[in-house]
């Protein structure tokens, strides 16, 4: 966003710091509250701190493909954004950070019920991952961890499978402990650029609009780049991993698990009308009433 510096002859400038490689959302939000940062690129876990329904965008089958993601954002994004605004933050734009897969070391988990008895690591404070796992009958309790805390569990052999994006595997240094991957996409990791309201309130009106327009363009670029990076990283991992996918009966089992998870989340965790609108935006069946 160098245009801000240029347009104001250096009076205002936005400095982008790549300081989140080993930081999670909770840390970034804490540092925003301290005033170290005026904004951050947060996942749905971080956004849910301000508006729990941010997880609607991460439901299975909704994101994926820029045009499909844009339809869902158009259908439910404005209402979710209102919740973020009420919390004192402004949304600069949504980001699809790529698909989540089941990564593993020793075993091929093709179908959902092959995860029975497996030690599965899920991201902390992520109700979508938790609901997907709970929808697989007979599984043992998962390991709920923050991403930056997972590496010691992998090195000590305490985890059989990890639900994550390829970018997560790369960012948090899990590559040496991952040997297999299921091609099936469970859901997408969706986030957004958010900024402190106090930052924008300090800008003159014309610069505020310039800043927000630039933030929206940047988020669109980040979303496109994040999606491309996720594909590139996934292909790179595929070259060195045992690469597999479910057979047709297993794929149908996964689809049933995804639907059950959405139904459960819409019973109280997420707003049911928002979930219905998001499903309709992707041409998927609405929830039963």
What does this structure look like?
Helices cover 45% and strands 16% of the residues. It has 289 residues and is an alpha/beta fold. It has 2 domains: 2-97 and 188-240, D-Maltodextrin-Binding Protein, domain 2; 101-186 and 243-281, Periplasmic binding protein-like II (D-Maltodextrin-Binding Protein, domain 2). Helix 5 (127-134) crosses helix 10. The chain is globular, with a radius of gyration of 19 Å.
Question: How would the blueprint of this fold be written?
Answer:
Elements: H1 2-7, H2 25-34, E1 39-43, H3 44-47, H4 66-86, E2 89-99, E3 101-104, E4 120-123, H5 127-134, E5 143-145, H6 151-155, E6 161-164, H7 166-171, E7 180-182, E8 188-196, H8 197-201, H9 205-240, E9 242-244, H10 248-265, H11 272-281
Parallel strand pairs: 4-5, 4-6, 7-9
Antiparallel strand pairs: 1-8, 2-8, 3-6, 3-7
Helix pairs in contact: 4-11, 5-10
**Binned strand content:** 15-25%
User: What is the subunit organization of this protein?
Assistant: single chain
CATH class category name of the largest domain: Alpha Beta
Please state the average pLDDT score: 85
Flag low-confidence runs. Answer: none
Superfamily (CATH H level) name of the largest domain = Bacterial extracellular solute-binding protein, family 7
Please estimate the helix content.
Answer: 40-55%
Tell me the CATH topology of the largest domain: D-Maltodextrin-Binding Protein, domain 2
Structural descriptors:
6-stranded mixed β-sheet, D-Maltodextrin-Binding Protein, domain 2, single chain, alpha/beta, 289 residues, 2 domains, 3-stranded antiparallel β-sheet
């Amino acid at each position: 966003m160098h245009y801000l510096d240029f347009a104001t002859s250096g009076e205002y400038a936005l400095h982008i710091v790549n300081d989140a490689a080993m930081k999670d959302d909770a840390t970034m939000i804490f540092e925003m509250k301290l005033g170290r940062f005026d904004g951050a690129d947060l996942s749905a876990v971080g956004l849910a701190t301000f508006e729990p329904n941010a997880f609607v965008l991460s439901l299975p089958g909704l994101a994926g493909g820029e045009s499909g993601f844009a339809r869902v954002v158009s259908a439910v994004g404005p209402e979710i954004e209102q919740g973020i605004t009420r919390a004192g933050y402004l949304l600069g734009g949504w980001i699809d950070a790529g698909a989540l897969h089941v990564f593993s070391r020793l075993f091929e988990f093709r179908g959902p019920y092959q995860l029975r008895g497996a030690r599965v690591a899920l991201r902390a404070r992520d109700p979508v991952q938790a609901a997907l796992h709970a929808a697989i009958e007979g599984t043992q309790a998962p390991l709920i961890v923050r991403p930056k805390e997972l590496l010691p569990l992998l090195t000590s052999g305490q985890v059989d499978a990890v639900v994550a994006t390829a970018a997560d595997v790369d960012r948090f240094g899990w590559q040496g402990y991952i040997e297999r991957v299921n091609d099936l996409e469970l859901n997408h990791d969706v986030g957004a650029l958010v900024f402190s309201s106090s930052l924008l309130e300090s800008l003159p009106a014309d610069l505020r609009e310039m800043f927000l327009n630039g933030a929206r363009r940047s988020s669109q670029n980040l979303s496109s780049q994040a999606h491309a990076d996720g594909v590139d990283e996934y292909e790179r991992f595929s070259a060195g991993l045992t690469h597999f996918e479910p057979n047709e009966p297993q794929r149908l089992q996964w689809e049933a698990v995804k639907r059950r998870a959405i139904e459960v989340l819409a019973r109280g965790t997420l707003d049911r009308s928002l979930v219905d609108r998001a499903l309709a935006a992707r041409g998927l069946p609405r929830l039963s009433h």
